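Predict the assembly for these two chains.
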Amino acid sequence: MHPGSEIPILNVENLTVAYQHGETWQNAVRDVSLRISSGETLGLVGESGSGKTTLLYGIMRYLPAGGRLRGGTIELAGQDLSALSDAEMRHVWGKQIGMVPQNPQTSLNPTIQVGEQIAETVRHHLSLDGPAAWRRVIELLEMVHINDPHRVSKSYPHQISGGMQQRILIAMALSTEPILLVLDEPTTNLDVTTQAEILDLIGEQIQVHKTAAIYVTHNLGVAANICDRIAVMYAGELVEEAPTSGLFEKPLHPYTQGLLDSVPRLGETKSSLRLRAIEGQIPPIDEHPPGCVFAPRCPIAIEICKQHTPLYVPDTGRRTRCHRWEELMLEEVFARQKPAPKIQQQDEFAEEDQTLKLENISVHFPVKRSLREALSRSPTKTVKAVDGVNMQMSKRETLGLVGESGSGKTTLARAVMGLVEKTGGKMELLGISLPSRLSERHLDTLRSLQMVFQDSDGALNPYLSIGESLRRPLISLVGINRAQADAEVDKLLNAVHLRSSFAQRLPGQLSGGEKQRVAIARAFASNPDLLICDEPVSSLDVSVQASILNLLNDLQLENHSSLLFISHDLAVVGYLADFIFVMYLGQIMQEAQAVDLFDSPYHPYTEALLSAIPVADPQALQDFIRLEDALPNPTDELTGCPYHTRCQRTLGNICEQETPPWQEDENGKRIYCHIPLEELRAAQKRAFAQPRSERE
Amino acid sequence: MPSVPHTQTKQENAAPSRGWRFFRVIRRLYARPASALGTSIFIIFLFLAIIGPLVTPYTTTEQIYSDAFQSPSSAHWFGTDNLGRDVFSRVIAGAREILVLAGLGTLISVVTGTIIGLLSGYRGGWFDELIMRFFDSLLALPAMLLALLLLGTLGPSTNSILIVIVVVYTPIVARVTRSVVLEVKNKAYVEAARLQGESLPHIVFGEILPPVLPTLAVESALRFSYAIFLVASLGFLGVGVQPPNPNWGLMVKETRNYVSQMPWALYFPVIAISLTVIGINLMADGLKELFGVGTQ
């Protein structure tokens, strides 16, 4: 499967794609050349605004109105695509190029059975009809490992899970045996356990069909998992291309290095190193610098970088757009700054210094009954979003709460904040009982309890200036007057590393990362004792994530706050938290100190999560555990352990019927499982192990 | 680390002030031909309504019997009616009459409708349910029937017409406002304001109202044009303002029996009604596109 000598399936030379902007054309993708041979997967990696999607659609000649190819050639199996008419392209799409889109929900027609949707493609491109087409559909569904193809083919999209929908789309893309498979972030909207399955499937299908594939993703871990080669895009240019192992071992472009360094790896903690963020932001499409596009943000930029950088070829199959690649290769210069050593925090948190105490908290939402159900007096069903959670937090502690979507982690946070009412249990903040209604809470309670929201776009009122948004909590919670508040706004902006002039701007003029900084500044304005962060970085680009995580960490230390950090990303939680709770279907499955999280024994669910995470290191050793993709119906009454329906280590009856015990090991790790710890430890040699070379 | 010299210059301009934003809206309305036309028509009528008495050669009630049934001439630009009144003067005076009455009615309905819609949408629960069901029952009646019922009870007067406009349009404005509030109230910034212990008035008027304003601007313009239509229709039916008021609808009613002798006395008020309504509608469409209302 090595590239090079074979004739490439796709050969893109010097492609430039532009969008019309008023009277002018702006090049969103500049001078990109790519080759992909059959059976080979090329990863196209970049942050938002890097032009990876534009490049992809340019290659397929499927640009929106106002976009066009301005130069270069695209050859698909020797055929020049740029010379084809739209009508001719329609034969290429679907037949020769198969595509798996990002969002399965909007890509399937909700009013047509999924089997019929595949059959449509089969009939059109393969000229099969009637029973023959249908037989092909069933074959395709079996090919993507759908257990009950006859039933699933008769289902409507909303009746099947997101993972299943993505399988359908993969089947559809492969139905015509395309020579090029295009995958546009196909797992981005999926949970990590489902993502792992879909990635396995994609990898397998590419092998079986020997098709060439382009895989677009922003996640280097995913790319490491599935791609043979990786091309890194930045500001519309291809800055580096290398075989996957080479890229991760020794990136020859400072941007690639920056991307790799800005995400914490599994097992790294804040006490072991500080994350290295890439300063600055991606230049807008109309303002790319004349020299190297990355120079304004590059830590090793020198005078020559002001000149345009050609693509150098350091090695067979490798290309880099950096003047200093030789020095990088010989390690005479390091693109990564030496990490600032972390201040060691106190490890032991005293019991009496308690910030938050949750006892048996539950939040049950009643499901509305239909008229017939109400008349027949069938009992009201409830969704147990949070079911009997116990939690304690000490002052200055960072507590991580990790779980997939539907685990109830956000609902738990909202119950603590008073945004939803708990239906049972007791909450205490700083030793004082915490009312569940927001309106019953004292101003002082509000002051000491603040939140940073997931959605950076929705966090700030688009019609109020940044200054106004920051002044409000100072006036209403801290109780200072307007003039004092203005001075304080300045301090807050400086604390989150924004210039004072930001106070006059509207949120629409800020980038996602800047908005989240303002949201963090607002949350810290009242100097809270407990700050809850609900996925604060999940909507941000990776290069921005690191700086936000560092910022949170610094501000927490300065303000002596406790932090409840919620995320679906185990690596991020593992990095930032002192103590970690793993949540599944509204219940806590495991509690462990962050340093112990990656040592066995684990709860079987934690084990599955750890083995599903795509690790940005091709040499990482991971167990292979895959879960059945469907979560149980949220209204189902589950007895026993909530995880028993998907558990890979289930003991059978006991798990289904009896509530598991809390087992505690010598390090204080607690696991909610029937399987004795010794047995778990023996079975779970490792779910994940650090690669041989520890960083630094 | 080199500085980032030219990547952020575009963001340096500060948030514009309110007055400046108003003029920018007007300027952008003129960017499209249709909304430019509509806005111009509206501004011309508004201007005529303001300076009306200064330019009209006659008063609205001045009857020159010798000049009755005259076709348009240099003395009487739009001709005269059966009573010898100058149609041009009456149409211009009618502009002030109808814009003031419809405008005031719209203003009151928009203000009350917005307040009710904001509170009802934000509070939710039985309060919302009660108000919305009551409004539903009002909206179930055709607007004209409701207007006739009210006027029959209140008796025809300018105040009654104001009440009619407010009763007919407040529920509509409230519903539109509420629908936007329902969307906005679950945004993180509203929740953040609640967590900051903000008072109800601040959350409703400080946080929720601003994002509602674009929709409200479009809705107000639409309501205004419909209010003009309603006032004219009531005048035509004879249940609204009474003679000798220069109401355009009333003028149509008074002159339609003489249409064969003096069509101009009928046509000019009809043209005036159509032009204002179409103009304001075009302007509303322009606002709609400008603010992106209904496209998000």
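Chain A has a mean pLDDT of 86. The two ends of chain A are 33 Å apart (CA to CA).
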